[in-house]
Specification:
Length: 233
């Protein structure tokens, strides 16, 4: 049997294995398992960020409250403004200072209110996500086992095909088989395609003069466009 015939036989049997792999990859068991696993990985990072964000907000809030307290304390110095006026102090100077301090307090109040709302929102988001993560963590082992069991149910059939592929591979040039496996890993399938009217039957590109000569000499060539292995019947 020629190399091409062996390769075609190998590909035909390999398509059965590919079907099983696609069935496993597209199964609900795998989807649910993969989605939960991805969610837990991302959620862990998100929770860390929320916690860090919350700590930063609380620290800033503490600093603003201290500034607010300091300014409020400074305002107490103006409680005896009448006494200062009687002693001949410049009233306009004190009025300007009081106005500036009041504006600072107003600004701090607004900033403190905004930060308090932000801290509350962050805390609520953290608590909500934490509940979801705990629920997902409880469900994860069950989903993982369901996926493992589904894969295991296909293992006997998969092993049988793999054994048949190994037997066929003995009569194929190792270098050609290596190229086949490399393309298989790149998710190219079918890998071996027939040449029709000097063109790749898969993508339609015409063979170069050099490749036409190789094919005429009975050699295996690769499509310059889709990189499949080409043969002429």
């Amino acid at each position: 049997m020629s190399q091409i015939s062996q390769l075609l036989l190998y590909q035909q049997k390999d398509s059965e294995l590919l079907k099983i792999e696609q069935e496993i990859a597209g199964s609900e068991e795998r989807k649910k398992y993969a989605q939960t696993k991805s969610y837990l990985n991302k959620a862990s990072e998100k929770l860390d960020k929320l916690e860090a964000q919350s700590q930063a907000v609380l620290k800033h809030l503490d600093e603003l409250n201290k500034r607010y307290a300091e300014i409020s304390e400074t305002l107490k110095d103006f409680d005896h403004l009448d006494d200062l006026m009687e002693s001949g102090a410049d009233l306009s100077f004190y009025q300007r200072n009081i106005s500036q301090l009041i504006e600072k307090i107003k600004g701090l109040k607004a900033e403190i209110a905004a930060l308090t709302a932000s801290a509350k929102e962050t805390t609520e988001e953290y608590q909500s996500m934490r509940k979801k993560v705990i629920a997902a963590q409880k469900q994860y082992p069950e989903l993982q086992n369901a996926y493992k069991n589904f894969k295991a149910s296909k293992q006997e059939e998969s092993d049988k095909i793999t054994g048949e592929l190994s037997a066929i591979a003995k009569d194929i040039d190792p270098e050609v088989l290596r190229k086949y496996q490399a393309k298989r890993s790149e998710r190219i399938f079918p890998i071996i395609c027939e040449i029709k009217s000097d063109r790749c039957s898969k993508c339609g590109i015409e063979l170069s003069i050099a490749d036409k000569e190789k094919v005429s000499a009975g050699k295996v060539v690769e499509c310059e466009n889709c990189h499949r292995i080409l043969y002429k019947a």
